[in-house]
Amino acid sequence: MISRPKLVVANRKMHGNLSDNRQFMESLLRHTQQHAAHYAICPPHPYLYQAQQLLQGSHIAWGGQNMSRFERGAYTGSVSPLMLREFGCQYVIIGHSERRQRGHDNDESCGERFEAALNAGLTPILCIGETLDEYEQGETDLVVVRQLNPVISHVGIEAIAKGVIAYEPVWAIGTGKAATPQHAQAILSFIRGHIGLLNEAVAEVTTLLYGGSVNPSNAAQLLSMPDIDGGLIGGASLIAEDFIQICKIANQLTETKLAA
């Protein structure tokens, strides 16, 4: 079995200021010196320059929370993948439910953004997941396949492993109600299996994250699941101590896995 290092990503959403960001990033640099696991921060776009200045040359990566499908043009208010690259971004979040719900993203446009991110040398983090109604109707499997297939159509199955897939049930985002480790594992195992139907080797190396009310209390149980390769962290990324604790849990699990 191929060993996949845990990846922990902070999605700071529309939070932070220059002072708070500096304290958060400097604290993270000091307290994550053990880094068999991988860490990344996605701040609001105006603070990417600050992230670049504080984190360049370190063990912590950074990225954007969204990007346009287009490299340039008359798209007021948008940020191009080339702009993210110029600020040293490694990652970019694609298709977060908070953008899907406001009509900014859909399944097809996420496929286009995923492709554009890869073309620009970025690692896209594709968010997929069901609403509460879809969950209660037992449609989770159908929803995640519907959201994933347009991406596969755009980039081909081999390129999926160049990105990251984050399962984020909409009903667990910002609600404090995380999916059980068993539910999250079942869905991520299903996603890996779906990819494996097209290419088993790609499925084995693709990084799959769980997101949705991950915190220091439940992180160990969630990240211990065999198909959960890390977390896309929202609320807990606003408190440095909480996020650092999750990073340390991910690192310990990675070290244990690598030593096995």
From TrEMBL:
Residue numbers annotated as active site: 96 (electrophile), 168 (proton acceptor)
E.C. designation(s): 5.3.1.1
Top EC category: isomerase
PROSITE patterns: TIM_1 (PS00171), TIM_2 (PS51440)
Residue ranges the record marks as coiled coil: none
Catalytic activities: D-glyceraldehyde 3-phosphate = dihydroxyacetone phosphate
Keywords: Cytoplasm, Gluconeogenesis, Glycolysis, Isomerase
Pathway as given in its UniProt record: Carbohydrate metabolism; erythritol degradation; Carbohydrate biosynthesis; gluconeogenesis; Carbohydrate degradation; glycolysis; D-glyceraldehyde 3-phosphate from glycerone phosphate: step 1/1
Chain residues that bind substrate: 11-13, 174, 213, 234-235
Subcellular location: Cytoplasm
Main location: cytoplasm
Top-level taxon of the source organism: Bacteria
Keyword Transport part of the UniProt annotation: no
A GO term, aspect molecular function: triose-phosphate isomerase activity
UniProt-listed InterPro entries: Aldolase_TIM, TIM_sf, TrioseP_Isoase_bac/euk, Triosephosphate_isomerase, Triosephosphate_isomerase_AS
NCBIfam families per UniProt: tim (TIGR00419)
Similarity comment: Belongs to the triosephosphate isomerase family.
Function: Involved in the gluconeogenesis. Catalyzes stereospecifically the conversion of dihydroxyacetone phosphate (DHAP) to D-glyceraldehyde-3-phosphate (G3P).
PANTHER family: TRIOSEPHOSPHATE ISOMERASE (PTHR21139:SF42)
Subunit structure: Homodimer.
HAMAP family assigned to the protein according to its UniProt record, in alphabetical order: TIM_B
Name listed for the protein in its UniProt record: Triosephosphate isomerase
